[in-house]
Amino acid sequence: MRVRVGSEEKVARVASPLAEHVPMVWMLPGLLRRRRISASQFVLMLRRVGHELSLSQAYRLLRYPPQRYDAELLAAICHALDCEIGELLRYEAETAEAPSLPPAFQVPGSE
Hints:
single chain; alpha+beta; four-stranded mixed beta sheet; 4 strands
């Protein structure tokens, strides 16, 4: 699955067949860059709001989009950075016709 991280496009492994059809843009790297917050400062900010994240996990979040979005982590990031969820994630509809869903996710008679 191709996802964009800020202005860069990255390839992430797909966690489920449905995830391949949900184009999300992970904007945390750009948000931290604009606010001039380093990865180590980001880890300290999360600790202050009660969420433990190692520096290597923070680097991964900044380098690659998450495969799954953990609601607890997203809430902690929003709290620590005093931002809204829309500043971290954005749904980007594809301009080309989306491929049909895998058979497991199709409703009989819907196509």
